[in-house]
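Researcher: I'd like a structural prediction for the single chain below. Treat it as a standalone chain; there are no partners to consider.
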Amino acid sequence: MAEIVLKNIRKTFGPSVVAVDNLNLTIQSGSFVSLLGPSGCGKTTTLRMIAGLDTPDGGELYLDGKLLFSESEGCRVPTEKRGMGLVFQNYALWPHMTVAQNVSFGLEMREVPKEARKKRVEEVLELLHIENLKNRYPGELSGGQQQRVALARMLAINPDVLLLDEPLSNLDAKLRLEMRTELKRLHQTLKNTILYVTHDQLEAMTLSTHVAVMHNGRILQYAPPLTIYRFPADLTVAAFVGSPPMNFFSRTEEGASGVFQSFLPLFPTLAERIHTVGVRPEDLHLSPAPPLDSWGYPAFFETVLPTGSDWIVSLKVDKRTVFSVLKEDPCLQPGEEVWVSTRKENLHLFDTQQKRIEIA
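Model: Treating it as a single chain, here is the predicted structure.
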């Protein structure tokens, strides 16, 4: 069991920079939680405070009910006594040691007997499919192989909690996909509690059991990834999660007021509360004529960006550009008129405070 609880955790840098602002978070034992957000939102600082590398200015931090930090009680358990494994962007492998020696290093520091060390190293190398690399040095390995070695070194000491700070950011697209698959498999096999810091929403969506979307040192939403995608709690979450990003039409935005007004008859009891309407590109469809059974609005085709599996279509709706994602080439010419449409249940509504309005 390795449940992590943060209560009113705060961290500032200097007199004016609030990195983490009274953060409350419960990471359940065995879960894979991603802290997702743009640079400077406080996600790495949060991970470093959990690890004990940074000291909070206030609040409390618990691991399985055991107090790790409390300002009021003067408690601060050092990093080495928290039973956590860390992997950062810089893998920090010892260049003069072989793979096996790097993986064994933490066990040696814990004075594990030689035969037990050897057996444990063989186990984790096999787990990560790098047993054939054990006699190589880090300089002889690819980026993906070095990442596996860093993970193996962390797993060798059998930590209750794994803390990963953007560990895949230095890899190319193919290796990132391979390592995401590897991390998912490891979590399903080992059942460790994992806290993963990333700005990559695809990593967060595909790996996590829960995602905490952070902004300006606060958690805006904490939920399973598909819940965040389908039911974003506010406008900031809706804008950040999704690629291409959600299309928005605001009551007061120049060039969007006409299309905004066309949504209001769909929600007669909510019309006065609605300030912004959002629709994801994959839910925005094209047709040559007005749809008969859903919302529709005239638009003009601008350009298409083929990705191989999808076509990202840029359209002019009133005076602003919106995007649609299609499964087939629309075969349109620039300036050609079409209709964009979507079903009522695919719309996302937000009030003047940018909070989500639930559709009954």
